[in-house]
């Protein structure tokens, strides 16, 4: 059996502001295996992004413990790549320079990583745009560059917080295909936060369904879809069945309101 790579045991998070407490997460237990792709889906405000920040070490847990590769997380780790919803590229560097900026900030040899940066940009369809600046690229192209930047230092874990949330539907679908290709090639452990049930099912080995705040794990579903999951995966009955099961959970929890007025008089 593949070893556990990320472990959350009894994890809780409470935020305090102006003497008011907000319980964001409560008693979260989750093991993610080495090389596994796990997607987390849940309503807004349920603590999905907080959960990711706990794994990154950017935010400490209030209770419980977070471990990566058997070590308790006490701060940011060098073996982790992060991609946020916005690309956050710097305006004064071209795309290749943006990808290599992380190498420079880590104090590594930029020249030694140039070939890898070019290879990653080729893999995400930006091989012909390495010398362009962010303002010359679309939002989807900028986000592709952000993914390349997140992978440039060969992390064993890739943490992604709604990375496709600001993209149009067609670009989002292409990014999904590109990400699966990169993951299949490199097999890093991926922890992926999304609001999209379809996206979670199409990408993940397992889908974690979270409850409304305070966030807890409601259900975990294994995704029984063959890879690669190209455009045809949407017509697989197993895809529709799993999307329906997750949707029904949110209906039962009151996240969705399906009591629409009839169009028939």
Automatic annotation (TrEMBL):
Keywords: ATP-binding, Nucleotide-binding, Transport. Pfam families: ABC_tran. The keyword Chaperone does not apply. GO terms for molecular function: ATP binding; ATP hydrolysis activity. Belongs to the ABC transporter superfamily. This is NitT/TauT family transport system ATP-binding protein. It comes from Chelatococcus asaccharovorans.
């Amino acid at each position: 059996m593949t070893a556990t790579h990320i472990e959350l045991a009894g994890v809780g998070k409470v935020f305090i502001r102006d003497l008011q407490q907000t319980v964001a997460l409560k008693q979260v237990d989750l093991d993610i295996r080495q090389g596994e792709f796990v997607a987390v889906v849940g309503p807004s405000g349920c603590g999905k992004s907080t959960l990711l920040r706990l794994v990154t070490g950017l935010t400490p847990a209030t209770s419980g413990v977070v471990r990566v590769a058997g070590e308790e997380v006490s701060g940011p780790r060098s073996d982790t790549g992060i991609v946020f919803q916005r690309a956050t590229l710097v305006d004064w560097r071209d795309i290749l320079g943006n990808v290599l900026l992380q190498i420079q900030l880590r104090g590594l040899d930029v020249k030694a990583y140039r070939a890898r940066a070019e290879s990653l940009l080729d893999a995400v369809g930006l091989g012909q745009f390495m010398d362009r600046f962010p303002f010359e690229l679309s939002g989807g192209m900028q986000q592709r560059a952000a993914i390349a930047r997140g992978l440039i230092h060969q992390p064993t874990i890739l943490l992604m917080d709604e990375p496709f949330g600001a993209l149009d539907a067609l670009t989002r679908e292409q990014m999904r295909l590109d990400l699966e290709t990169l993951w299949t090639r490199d097999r890093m452990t991926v922890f992926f936060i999304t609001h999209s049930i379809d996206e979670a099912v199409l990408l993940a080995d397992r889908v974690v369904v979270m409850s409304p705040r305070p966030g807890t794990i409601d259900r975990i579903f294994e995704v029984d879809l063959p890879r690669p999951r190209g455009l045809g995966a949407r017509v697989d009955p197993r895809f529709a069945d799993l999307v329906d099961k997750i949707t029904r959970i949110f209906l039962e929890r009151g996240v969705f309101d399906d009591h629409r007025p009839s169009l028939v008089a």
